[in-house]
Amino acid sequence: MDPNNRGPEEYGHDDDGGPPRQRPPRDSLTSDFAQHSPALARTVQLVAGDFLLTVNPVDGSEIEACPPGERPGRPEKFGAAERAEVDRAARPPVPPGPTRTALPLLARQDEREQLVRLLARGRSVRLTGPAGSGRTSLLDVVAEDCSDLAPDGVVRLSGFNRTATELLYDLFYAVFNAPLHRPDRDELLSCVREIGAVVVLDDIEFGGAALDELLDATPECAFVIGATPDVPAPSADSAVEDVFLNGLERADGLDLLERCVGRVLTEDESNWAGDLWFESEGLPLRFVQAGALLRQRDRLRAGANAVDEFGVFADAPPIDAPLEPDPGQEIPLPALGEAAAPAPLLASRLSESARATLRFAVALDGEVPHQAHLPALIGDTHADAALGELAASGLVSPVGSRYRLAAGVLTQLEAAGYGDDTETFARTAARHYGWWAGHPSVTPERVCAEADALLAALAVLVPGTTPPAEDEESVTVRLARTAAPAFAAGGHWGAWERSLRAGSEASRLAGEVSEQAYFHHELGVLALCGGQLDRARAELEASIGLRGALADKRGTVAGRRALTLVSDRDGSAPGLLVGLGAMAGEEVPDARYDESASPPGGVPAAFPPLQPPADAQTVVVHRSPSTPAPSRKARGGLKGLAKRNLVAAGAGALLVAVLGTVVTLGATSGNDPNDPSTQVGVNPSASVGIDDGNLGADVPKDDKGTADTGTATSRPTDPGPDGTYGTSDDPTPTEAATPSGSPSGTQGTGTGGTPSSPRPSSPRPSTPRPSTPSTPTGPGTPTTSGTPKPSDSPTPTSSPTPTDTTPSNSTSASGSASSTPVETSSSASASASSSQQVI
What secondary structure does DSSP assign to 269-285, as a single string? Predict the structure, then answer.
């Protein structure tokens, strides 16, 4: 069986009229489809709006901005021959078997003329009638009458399970030749405004504002809409004419019944038909089904040697009447109740394949599988003939390009027990459709034609999905996984969304995380194509999280690319937002804040603190866990962004100027041979920690020429010639010395709060005394070159006595401050060094 197309030989007769071809056994038939090597994934690339979408059924669809060279031009309309092919595809297939005589349209001439007259004036009309009143048959005749009224001919659409947007796309594809192109909303409306056609829209399920939207988008089209009375009516200002379709008169009902039976009715049959007319309110469907009951009765009366009109013997005994009655036995007419609800009685006298087809239809919520699928579903090579039996009995009716159970048949069959094993039949259908939809020979358009049957199987199986065995996979997940890419490639995006949502729920219940990530990714791509950015972001983030847990790198990359495109669309790129937020002083999520603090040893005098303007705001970029976040009052909006940028730029320029001055002074002040900075050796003492607070500056000395130390912290002295540091022997804490000519203060500032000079103080104009080179007296304990005079010694100032007497010689790289605060001034250190040179 070809899963895509069926030739005439598949219906039991060859093209040349010869005997039927001998079919191979079932096992060899299925072995033809065995793949010796894995089939390549069927990827389809299409343009959706301004996106280039690559439908990838393996890792998930890839979406990107469509390059200019890939964008298609404006689509062109079909020609006359192509329109005829599109119209043929929109009709249901002819059931196999002997050709049935078409029933004429009785007692509908007035409605027919009225509809044609209104459509010829360019008016839209709504044909309302109960189910089974013959709306579809009347619309078919009207479509034939209006074939030459509009420049774009007649377009047949089905409104069953369709929204207004989906119908607009169906109308677009029926008139324009646009393969692999799905226009966005604006382009779609621009194209459908140019369509001038008579649109025959049957089985519509919406009205009101949605119908007004459809009519307003197509001003050059005339619609004839078929609906049931329970569908909402058009709005009052829609200018849609309403025509109501009533039942047949009693005489017309009897005439229709005689045409269905093919003979004149007896008196008993006429009386029986009269009672049926009163019970059914003259619905034509009831008379068609009553004619099928009379034909079955005639065959039963003829005896067991009669062959039914389809060439297949009745292979099952009837439920309420024997198939082999005595020739002289009279078969009574069906009861009035059986004639009013004839589905169980009609089904009981059909073939086994026809009854199995009805069970599949009941399991699929009324959807009858295509005749090409019946042999595989039922297991009978002649099962495709069952559709002809059902159509002749009035148990199925056409809906668009397929068949469904006729009005009321589903309820009647469920009451008769045909829905007792619904899940089993739905699972069988899902297993078959899952194989068929993924077959390489099946086109996406063919899968879209079977969308309602596939979605019905998913609706039945998803609630009862359970985790499969170790070596098995979920039938429901597989069906959704194989059908969803085909729906996307075929342009049926409404079915694509419904299958993705069903697959997402089924994979969650089955515990298949990888499949759940795939469905979330596809839902995100679909939302992005539809402009729903918030939903797209949520779905893609969920997919990326699941794939990250599975270490699926390729899927994660595809998800991140799509998420980046979402951020570009809504302007919420993470890097851009963080940068703008930091510049504007906004609080950045997940950022740490840390208050600025002075170094433990004080700020060197060469780098005076910059005083920000009064209206400047501090932007904090780090925060320790113990430091609270900055107040929201300190945040600025975009209005103050430019002003803060100017302040920051000015401060940066000032800092660059100061650094340049310091570097220049350092480069030109290397003429002193006794500069302490040139006496640093290569072996510094390990007792110097990174948190000693001296910042690498010289430690001032006391009156005795030794290093200024305290009981709390043992500070090293000046380095000796070999570059090593010694320790002080004086346990008494002293104060940081300040030259007599310099104001005392802390942090490099005087008492007045002004910054100290960035250069060391000049030596006093006195004759320098010759100095004796220092000689180390012990390891790590160098002596000074001389003893300063009492008059030249700096005057110490009072200082609080440290309370902690434990020495702190930290060598940790963590940067923790010393437990004893020791404040020293860089200007004082420079002055002390100058005093030693003078002495």
Answer: HHHHHHHHHHHHTT-HH
If one counts every other C-beta atom within 10 angstroms of the C-beta of residue 773, the result is 6
Q: SS3 of 34, please?
A: coil
CA–CA separation, 839 vs 20, rounded Å?
128
- What are phi and psi for residue 77, nearest 5 degrees? -80, 155
Three-state secondary structure of 439-478: CCCCCHHHHHHCHHHHHHHHHHHHHHCCCCCCCCCCHHHH
H/E stretch holding 375 reads: helix 374-378
| Residue-by-residue DSSP string for 206-238 | --THHHHHHHHH-TT-EEEEEE-TTSPPPPTTS
CATH number for 76-246 (one of 3.40.50.920, 3.30.300.20, 3.90.1150.10, 3.40.50.300): it is 3.40.50.300
- Using DSSP, state whether 128 is helix, strand or coil: strand
pTM of the model: 0.65
Average pLDDT, the chain: 73
Convert the pLDDT of each residue in 144-184 to its tens digit: 999 999 999 999 999 999 999 999 999 999 999 999 999 99
Cα–Cα distance measured from residue 477 to residue 473, given in angstroms and rounded to the nearest whole number = 8
Residue 720 CA, distance from chain mean position: 72
Residue 138 CA to residue 248 CA, distance in Å, equals: 13
Domain positions in the chain: 76-246, 249-418, 670-741+779-791+817-839
Query: How many percent of the chain have pLDDT more than 90?
Result: 51
The tokens for 211 are 């119908």
CA distance 668 to 676: 16
pLDDT tens, residue by residue, 311-367: 444 444 443 343 444 444 578 889 988 888 999 999 999 999 999 999 999 999 999
